[in-house]
Amino acid sequence: MSPLQTIKSYILWTHPRGGFHYDVMVTAILAFIFLTPRSVFKDSPNYRPPHPNETIVKPDGSGGFIYEVSSAAVSANGAQTDAALKNALRPVAGDVTITRYVELRNNSGKVSGYRIWAHR
Known about the structure:
four-stranded antiparallel β-sheet; 4 strands; 32% helix; rod-shaped
């Protein structure tokens, strides 16, 4: 078999299963799949930072919920914080009573969000 005929038979996949040339083709395909680095295909998961208005909700075990709200969703300071937290929770939880809240701070000490205990 000439080299051109061999290449043609590889391209057209004409070799019988279990033969030497069939095993060579399967080995080449598997080597390509498992040994090709991911960077060749530019296939990496996209990092999506959480939306600034995203609210995380967890049950607190006593019939209430614990909400984590980003500071970007709360536009108040000082005495207006309670009202601003209620306004931030209203689209997610409806009308709730806030039991307490804690400011969440990042490494530099800046307020990054709030953890709020609330019930209906």
